[in-house]
Amino acid sequence: MRLYVVGLGPGDEELVTVRAVKVLGRSRVIFIPYSTGTNRSLAEGIVRRYAPGDARLVLLGFPMSRDVPDSELRRLGETICREANGEDSAFVTLGDPTLYSTFFRVRDWIPCEVEVEVIPGVSSITACASRIGAPLAVGDDSIAIIQPLGWTCWGGLGICSRP
Question: Between the CA of residue 137 and those of 15, 67, 111, 134, what are the distances in Å?
Fold first, then answer.
């Protein structure tokens, strides 16, 4: 089974990439995370605009907190396997899936065989700068995502975990 992890951009349905629209348009099962704290999903409205009418939309309640119990992540992973039932599927995230994504919290808890393909999205970092017409970097400028105090990072990729 292939699982497309689709970045939907910063919440504006017009900032969804062409590739994301194509993947959503052919997906029959689409996983949509929502906050269990607010019982809302900004992603759901965006998905409904681009998903086929016969697509099955599976809402996944995520506790939007730092410490999510392993049992909850395991339950979410099992739900993904059960609902996808071996079909190629999509899992959507706001922004870009590689920045603070709900998917990467649950990825290691998906017990079935899955091939993941990440479809990048417009991040809020670039969308905000674009909105005000400000460059993030010009010429020889550098930008960085800074490691929070007390966190551990590995290699030059900036992959970090909190203490």
Answer: 21, 34, 41, 9
